[in-house]
Amino acid sequence: MTPQTDITTLEDIKLLVDTFYSKVQKDEFIGPIFNKKIGDRWPEHLEKMYRFWQTILLEVHSYSGSPFPPHKQLPVAKEHFDRWMEIFTQTTDTLFTGPLADEAKYRAKNMAEMFNYKIDYFRNLEKNQTNNS
């Protein structure tokens, strides 16, 4: 499938999010982590992701909240974020081409790097507090 258009509508975002998370759920490396954390709340999670990406890419302010806290305690490392990014990039490149598709990949990369950094920071902080107790 050759991507023909850029991300321009909420329907495009839903296609990206649904396709991406369908792959994530089946992925042997990161799928079990997501499936355990989200459980039977996938529809709720996907709705939140639609609003998040709609706000980021289409400047329709439908998402509010802080995306990091739910991820803070996940048992993940850089390799997990690398795999997440690999699936996201592959999905985006398969479905879309253009400036907003590039922006989605750029934002996803920055988010993955920031989440990885913050998770490491909080783990080290907790480890140091435990060692100093």
Task: Describe this protein's structure.
Helix 1 packs across helix 2. The termini are far apart. The protein has one domain (10-131): Globin-like, CATH 1.10.490. The longest helix has 33 residues, at 99-131. It contains 5 helices and no strands. It has helices at 10-26, 31-38, 42-58, 78-95, 99-131. With 133 residues, it is mainly alpha-helical.
Describe the secondary structure blueprint for this structure.
Layout: H1 10-26, H2 31-38, H3 42-58, H4 78-95, H5 99-131
Cα gyration radius (Å) = 16 Å
CATH topology: Globin-like
The residue-averaged pLDDT reads: 90
N-to-C terminal Cα separation, in Å? 57 Å
CATH superfamily, by name, is Globins
Poorly predicted tracts of residues = none
Specify the number of helices. 5
**Which term fits the overall shape?**
elongated
- DSSP strand content: under 5%
Q: Strand-and-helix sequence, N→C?
A: HHHHH
The CATH architecture name reads Orthogonal Bundle
